[in-house]
Specification:
157 residues, alpha+beta, three-stranded antiparallel β-sheet, 18% helix
Length: 157
């Protein structure tokens, strides 16, 4: 179950507004089932259509400066996440920094995930690709819509 998550039509998601996406990804990866529950504002055809805060990327503090330059070189607009009511950047439970990288709409989330995680100093991204088996969206009118990845559409009632 994920609360603050934005999903596309293939159930790829951006998660990590709270900065705990590394721990959440470990739990999701090791779970038998990963199901998303969100409201209609978090449903889109492509990642980046609704969520405008970028992809959260957990980085080692010593790698933050060179990684910000690398993120720019691949078309991202990186911003070091700063603390609210405290001086300095947000520090994760793991002692690392969060860089929010705006790529606009993401055409190929799996490719983007791979591109980011191959960079030394990147520990994890908030891209959850190919992990969710189903998503429930609370619609504006109070109804609930269900979305499954296109490859599993056959046989759905």
């Amino acid at each position: 179950y994920q609360r603050r998550v934005h999903g596309d039509s293939y159930l790829n998601c951006i998660k990590g507004g709270g900065g705990a996406h590394l721990q959440e990804k470990i739990i999701a990866y090791n779970s038998k089932r990963f199901v998303v529950v969100a409201d209609y504002r978090k449903k889109s055809e492509k990642l980046g259509q609704q969520w405008k805060a970028g992809v959260p990327v957990e980085v080692l503090p010593m790698a933050q400066v060179p990684l910000m330059a690398r993120f720019q070189s691949i078309g991202g607009k990186p911003t070091l996440r700063m603390g609210v009511r405290k001086a300095g950047p947000v520090v994760t439970d793991n002692g690392n920094f969060i860089v929010d990288v705006d790529f606009g709409e993401i055409d190929d989330p799996k490719k983007r995930e791979h591109q980011l995680t191959e960079m030394p100093g990147v520990l994890c991204t908030g891209l959850f690709c190919g992990m969710a088996e189903k998503a429930y969206f609370g619609e504006k009118d109070g109804t609930v819509s269900i979305r499954v990845p296109p490859s599993t559409m056959a046989g759905i009632e």
